[in-house]
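Task card 7
Instruction: Convert sequence to structure tokens.
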Amino acid sequence: MKFLLTSLTAVFLAAGSSSAINIFLASDSTCAYNPHNATQFIYGWGTYLPPYFSAPVAVQNVAKAGYSTRTYIREGFWQEVVDRLVPGDVVLLQWGHNDGSPINDDTRSRGVIPSLGNEYQDIINDVTHLPERVYTFGHYLSQMANDTISKGAHPIPVPMTLNKNFNVTTGKITRGNTWADLAYEFAQKSKLPFIDSRNIMADTFDALTQDQITALYQPGGGTHFVAAGANLVARSTVNAFKCLHSYPAILDYVSPSGKAIPLPKHCYRTALDASVAPAVERRGSLRRRAGM
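Output:
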């Protein structure tokens, strides 16, 4: 697997104020628009992000329910995104929930190898009945990031959203997660920006009771959110953007409602690139930006 490294200057070329800046959300059902949300009580956070930005920023929610990095690419959805990209666009890459599924089964065959290395596994796909070489999480993220950069756009890995898992000792929401950590490590290795909306949202959860947190999730579930929970993810994502102090092409167009969101207590692993946030640095202070 090869990583296409980008310098800080290359990643943060500010788009002109007269140009549209698209934020593409490449993710799964936790982000996707769900036309059946009224009956399923599943709301994707991408539905709630647009009001927090003003023109010329436009949010393009291209998340697909049920997909992993591997199947999103395999079934052509990622190429559709690439074909739409123009220089200056931003692509948030938020994956993990489905990447941990079985690599091969007769329902979806969507899992990937939980690594950033060069490992692969050759299978006869039980769904397609065709030979397939399955790669690592890092391999698929690398393809998405490289394709994005090749179009003059900017990839930003994002950790997967919080599952409703409580720490048995503290009673607080569990922050640690293999796929979230891999996304961060990928961003560091590839010298890409990273926004830690996951830890910022966990701070909000820490101020709530378990019952209050449970009420933010789909009844009986622990992965998908109801409307209030999905909106909280969107707000945490906006706050994570605020931690990217040198990204005026986005920050200059946070809407009044986005600016009104209280600043996060910590930026955590949010950083412009690996040189800004080394692996040992888990928390960072938020330098206040005018108007935020």
